[in-house]
C-alpha cells in the first residue's frame, strides 16, 4: 500500500543524492571562502588600527587616542559611497534571509545582499560596535539564493539553498559545524526535514573543513576551566536566566528606539552615520573596549580579566554604543555585541556574588550570560548552546548555558517576541508566525484577481435603465460610476424592483457598501469577505476614488486554494 508517500526509483534517488552533494559542497566552499576572507580582513584592519593607536602618540587626547574616531568617520563616508554605488535604501541582514526562506517565488536581492556585506565589513573594519555574524549569515543566504537562480535547480527548493548558505557562514565563522546545521533549521527555515538536513549538513561540514584547511585557526572563544558539580548553581542559573532575558529585551528595545530616533531627525544617512561615529569615537577615548565586535573582550571576560565596576561599565556602554551604531546606520550584526553584553553581565553577577561571600563556579556565569542574551536576541537557544558546547568541549558548561538560555528566551518571547529579526519583519508588516500560506496571502495583492466584467451605469440614469442592464447581463448587482471613473455607489436588483421605475437611480444607491482598497492583499480581502453577503465587492483606489474593478468571493477563494497548493508543493519538495 502506498499511503500517499512518494517513492523514487534507484536512478532518481541517485540523481537526487548527487545533486544534493554538489549543491551542499558548492555552497559550502563558496561561503567558506568569503567568510574566511571577511574574518581575516577584519583581523588585519583591527590589528592595523590598534597599532596606529600605539605608534602615533601625536593623536593622543585626554589619556586616550583620537585614531578610532578618525577610522569611524572614514567608515561613515565609505558607507555613504556604498549606499550610492549599490542604490541601497536600507541595509539587509538576517531578517531578510528568514523572509527569503519563507517566500514561495521571490529570491533574495543579490545586489542589496552583497552591498550590505561590504557595508558591514567597512563598519566593522572602522571599529563600529557591531557584529560580524549577522552580515555573514545574510551573505551566505544571498549566495545560496543566487546559486539557485543561476543554475535553476528545481530538485532542491530555494529555502534549502538559503539554509545551506546560512549553515556554511555560521560553521566557518565559529568553527562549529553542528551549530551551523541547527541554526539554519532553528532560526531561518523554522522546520526540520531529511531533504533539507542532508545538503545543509554537507554545506556546513564542507565550510568548516575548507576554512580550517586553508586558513587554519582555532575557536574564537575559549574556556579553559572545568566545571565541577553544577547542582548548587542551578538556582543561580535559573535566576540569572531571568535577568539575562530582561537585559536582552532592553538591548532589543534600545536598538529599535535608536532607529526610531534616527528616523525622526530627518537627517540624511551620512549625517546620522557621522553622529554615531563621532559619539562612539569620543567614548572610545576613555573606554576603547566598546569598539568592534567584542570577541577579544569576551575572552578576557571568560578569563576573569576585568574588575567588577568595569564589567558593569562595559555592559552599559556596549549596549548603548551598539544601539547607536546600528540605529544610525553603521551597519553590522547583533550576535557578537549581544554575546559581549551577556558575558559582561554574567561576569558582573559572578564577581558580585563572590564579593558578598557566595561560592561560584569560575567562568560559569559569563558563559551562561553569553549564551542566554545571544539566544534571546537571535531566537536560537539550541544553536547557541551548541556553539558553547563545540567551543568549550564541556558538557557541564553546555548544560549551564542551556538552563540560562531557555529561561531568557522564554521570558523574551513572552514580553517581546520570538527574536530581534522577527520583530524587524513585524515592523515591516510581515508576520511569520501565521505560516507560509498566510505570508503569501499577505503579499499577494488583490489586483491579481480583479474582475473588470461588471454592470455599471452613469449617475444620471433612471432605475429602469439600471434594471434593464442587470437583466440583460444576468447580474443581481451593479455600480454607479461617474465620467472620471469615480465610484458613486452600488445598487442591487432586489432593491430597485421595489422602487418607482422612472425615479432617479442616485436616490436608491448603497453609498457605503463593503469595499476593498486597491492596495489590499488577498489576506485582507478574505477578512472582509468573511463578513460580506452579496455578489461582488468593489475595489476602490483610495487616492482618487476611482473603481479599479470588482472581486467575488469565488475569486478570493480561488486565490486562497492556489496559494495553499503551491505551499504544499514547496513543503513536500
Describe this structure in words.
The protein is mainly alpha-helical and about 575 residues long. It has two domains: about 10-430, Orthogonal Bundle (Clc chloride channel), CATH 1.10.3080; about 445-570, Roll (CBS-domain). The chain contains 22 helices and eight strands. The strands form three sheets. A three-stranded mixed sheet has the order 3-4-5. The longest helix is centred in the N-terminal third of the chain and has 46 residues, at about 10-55.
Quaternary structure state of the chains depicted:
single chain
- State the end-to-end distance: 21 Å
Order of helices and strands: HEEHHHHHHHHHHHHHHHHHEHEEHEHEEH
CATH topology of the largest domain: Clc chloride channel
**Discrete helix count:** 22
Task: Estimate percent helicity.
Answer: 55-70%
Mean pLDDT level: 85
What would CATH call the architecture of the largest domain? Orthogonal Bundle
The rounded Rg comes to 29 Å
Largest sheet: 3 strands, mixed
What is the class of the largest domain in the CATH system? Mainly Alpha
Any idea what the shape is? elongated
- Stretches where pLDDT is under 50 for at least 5 consecutive residues are none
Measured by DSSP, the beta-strand proportion falls in 5-15%
Q: Helix/strand/pairing class, anyone?
A: mainly alpha
For CATH, the homologous superfamily of the largest domain is named as Clc chloride channel
Number of strands: 8
Amino acid at each position: 500500500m502506498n499511503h500517499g508517500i512518494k517513492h523514487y526509483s534507484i536512478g532518481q534517488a541517485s540523481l537526487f543524492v548527487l545533486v544534493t552533494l554538489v549543491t551542499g559542497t558548492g555552497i559550502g566552499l563558496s561561503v567558506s571562502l568569503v567568510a574566511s576572507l571577511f574574518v581575516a580582513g577584519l583581523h588585519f584592519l583591527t590589528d592595523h588600527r590598534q597599532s596606529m593607536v600605539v605608534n602615533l602618540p601625536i593623536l593622543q587626547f585626554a589619556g586616550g587616542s583620537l585614531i578610532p574616531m578618525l577610522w569611524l568617520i572614514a567608515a561613515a563616508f565609505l558607507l555613504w559611497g556604498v549606499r550610492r554605488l549599490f542604490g541601497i535604501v536600507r541595509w539587509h541582514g538576517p531578517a531578510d534571509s528568514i523572509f527569503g526562506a519563507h517566500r514561495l517565488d521571490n529570491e533574495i536581492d543579490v545586489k542589496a545582499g552583497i552591498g550590505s556585506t561590504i557595508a558591514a565589513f567597512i563598519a566593522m573594519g572602522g571599529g563600529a560596535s557591531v557584529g560580524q555574524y549577522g552580515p555573514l549569515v545574510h551573505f551566505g543566504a544571498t549566495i545560496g539564493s543566487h546559486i539557485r537562480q543561476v543554475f535553476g535547480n528545481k530538485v532542491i527548493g530555494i529555502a534549502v539553498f538559503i539554509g545551506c548558505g546560512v549553515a556554511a557562514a555560521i560553521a566557518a565563522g565559529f568553527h562549529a559545524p553542528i551549530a551551523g546545521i541547527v541554526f539554519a533549521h532553528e532560526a531561518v527555515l523554522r522546520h526540520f526535514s531529511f531533504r533539507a538536513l542532508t545538503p545543509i549538513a554537507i554545506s556546513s561540514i564542507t565550510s568548516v573543513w575548507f576554512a580550517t584547511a586553508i586558513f587554519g585557526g582555532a575557536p574564537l572563544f575559549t574556556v579553559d576551566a572545568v566545571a565541577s558539580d553544577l547542582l548548587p548553581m542551578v538556582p543561580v542559573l535559573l535566576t540569572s536566566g531571568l535577568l539575562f532575558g530582561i537585559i536582552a529585551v532592553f538591548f532589543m528595545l534600545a536598538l529599535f528606539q535608536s532607529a526610531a530616533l534616527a528616523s525622526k531627525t530627518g537627517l540624511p544617512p551620512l549625517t546620522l552615520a557621522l553622529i554615531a561615529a563621532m559619539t562612539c569615537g569620543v567614548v572610545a577615548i576613555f573606554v576603547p573596549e566598546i569598539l568592534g565586535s567584542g570577541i577579544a573582550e569576551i575572552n578576557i571576560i571568560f578569563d576573569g580579566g576585568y574588575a567588577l565596576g568595569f564589567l558593569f561599565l562595559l555592559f552599559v556602554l556596549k549596549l548603548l554604543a551598539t544601539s547607536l551604531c546600528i540605529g544610525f546606520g553603521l551597519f553590522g550584526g547583533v550576535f557578537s555585541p549581544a554575546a559581549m553584553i551577556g558575558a559582561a553581565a554574567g561576569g558582573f553577577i559572578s564577581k558580585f556574588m563572590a564579593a558578598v561571600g557566595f561560592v561560584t563556579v569560575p567562568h560559569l556565569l559569563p558563559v551562561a550570560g553569553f549564551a542566554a542574551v545571544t539566544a534571546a536576541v537571535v531566537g536560537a537557544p539550541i544553536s547557541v548552546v551548541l556553539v558553547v558546547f563545540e567551543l568549550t568541549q564541556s558538557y557541564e558548561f553546555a548544560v549551564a548555558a542551556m538552563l540560562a538560555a531557555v529561561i531568557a528566551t522564554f521570558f523574551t518571547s513572552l514580553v517581546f517576541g520570538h527574536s530581534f529579526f522577527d520583530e524587524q519583519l513585524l515592523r515591516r508588516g510581515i508576520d511569520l508566525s501565521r505560516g507560509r500560506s498566510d505570508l503569501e496571502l499577505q503579499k499577494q495583492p488583490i489586483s491579481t484577481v480583479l474582475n473588470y466584467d461588471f454592470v455599471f451605469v452613469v449617475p444620471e440614469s433612471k432605475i429602469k435603465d439600471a434594471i434593464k442592464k442587470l437583466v440583460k447581463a444576468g447580474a443581481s448587482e451593479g455600480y454607479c460610476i461617474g465620467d472620471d471613473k469615480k465610484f458613486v455607489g452600488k445598487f442591487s436588483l432586489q432593491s430597485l424592483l421595489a422602487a418607482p421605475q422612472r425615479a432617479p437611480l442616485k436616490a436608491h444607491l448603497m453609498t457605503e457598501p463593503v469595499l476593498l482598497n486597491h492596495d489590499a492583499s488577498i489576506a485582507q480581502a478574505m477578512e472582509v469577505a468573511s463578513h460580506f453577503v452579496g455578489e461582488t465587492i468593489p475595489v476602490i483606489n483610495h487616492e482618487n476614488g476611482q473603481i479599479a474593478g470588482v472581486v467575488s468571493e469565488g475569486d478570493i477563494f480561488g486565490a486562497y486554494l492556489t496559494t495553499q497548493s503551491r505551499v504544499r508543493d514547496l513543503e513536500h519538495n
